[in-house]
Amino acid sequence: MTLVSERHPVRALGLFAGAVLVTAVVGSLFSVSAGSTYAMLEQPAWAPPGWLFGPVWTTLYVMIAAAGWLAWRSGAGRRELTLFGAQLVLNAAWTPLFFGLGWFWPAFAEILVLWLSIAALIVVFWRRNKAAGLLLVPYLAWVSFAAALNLSIAVLN
Asked: What angle do CA 88, 89, 93 make, to 5 degrees?
């Protein structure tokens, strides 16, 4: 799939960064009061402080964009890039479900689908470019942790 001419890899990087930025903005629109909402929820003892989520997600979003770009540079095709886009949509959908609507159980079901899409993306990107696959491993680890936290909050609330 040709996003832009292969002679313009910086433009392609901008497209990947832009797609990830849209995902982050959608999440942030629904997380304006997330800090206070999160603090009011019954949480497990191992729940991280609310301030940690911003720096973690910022780092992960940079890594996600870089992974997409590296895979594209290595010849990722339409199906691989569609999977990349699908996991971004799933990523963006979780925050409105959890914080916007307070639907903890549907959010948990959704994060499981997100987890599967990230795992599949790691596999297909790894085949194209090992660095692209490796860049997504911390994302999968964090989403695994977030899924466990989501489940615990759903049970406790």
From this structure: 115
3-state secondary structure 24-91: HHHHHHCCCCHHHHHHHCCCCCCCCCHHHHHHHHHHHHHHHHHHHHHHHHCCCCHHHHHHHHHHHHHH
Domains of the chain: total: 1
The Cα 121–Cα 124 span in angstroms is 5
CA neighbours closer than 13 Å in the CB half-sphere of residue 56: 14
Note the pLDDT tens digit of each residue in 57-104. Answer: 999 999 999 999 999 999 999 999 999 999 999 999 999 999 988 999
Question: Which CATH number does the domain housing residue 82 bear?
Answer: 1.20.1260.100
User: 2 is written with which tokens?
Assistant: 């040709």
